[in-house]
């Protein structure tokens, strides 16, 4: 097996992976169902893009920015004061807040500039 991204590495040989999967499906790794390649787990590829989340909830874009490439690695639901919510404003975090909390929306937007 090979990968284009050199950060994605196989930890075990393919034969070892086939042996782990065969108790669940005896056809895996046979002539009837050969393994022709594997894609290793990747945090980057396993989380949705900002664009995907927005599409799922039918959001309207004010500024799409880098939504096609930014990944949502965690989310937080907050209606706290700005000073108490600051610790949530980290790269990769989806901030879910009431629409009338202009202070949190502005603080979240400004935190990306820091």
From TrEMBL:
Coiled-coil regions listed in the entry: none
Gene3D superfamilies: HprK N-terminal domain-like
Pfam families in the record: DRTGG (PF07085)
Annotated ranges, domain DRTGG: 52-111
Subunit structure: Homohexamer.
Protein name: DRTGG domain-containing protein
Species of provenance: Rhizobium hidalgonense
Lineage, uppermost ranks: Bacteria, Pseudomonadati, Pseudomonadota, Alphaproteobacteria, Hyphomicrobiales
């Amino acid at each position: 097996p090979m990968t284009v991204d050199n950060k994605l590495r196989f930890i075990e040989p393919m034969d070892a992976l086939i042996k782990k999967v065969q108790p669940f499906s005896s056809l895996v790794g046979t002539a009837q169902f050969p393994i022709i390649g594997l894609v290793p787990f990747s945090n980057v590829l396993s989380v949705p893009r900002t664009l995907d989340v927005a599409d799922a909830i039918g959001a309207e874009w004010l500024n799409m920015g880098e939504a096609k490439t930014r990944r949502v690695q965690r989310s937080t639901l907050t209606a706290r004061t700005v000073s108490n919510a600051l610790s949530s404003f980290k790269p990769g975090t989806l901030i879910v807040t009431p629409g009338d909390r202009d202070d949190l929306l502005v603080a979240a937007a400004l935190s990306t500039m820091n």
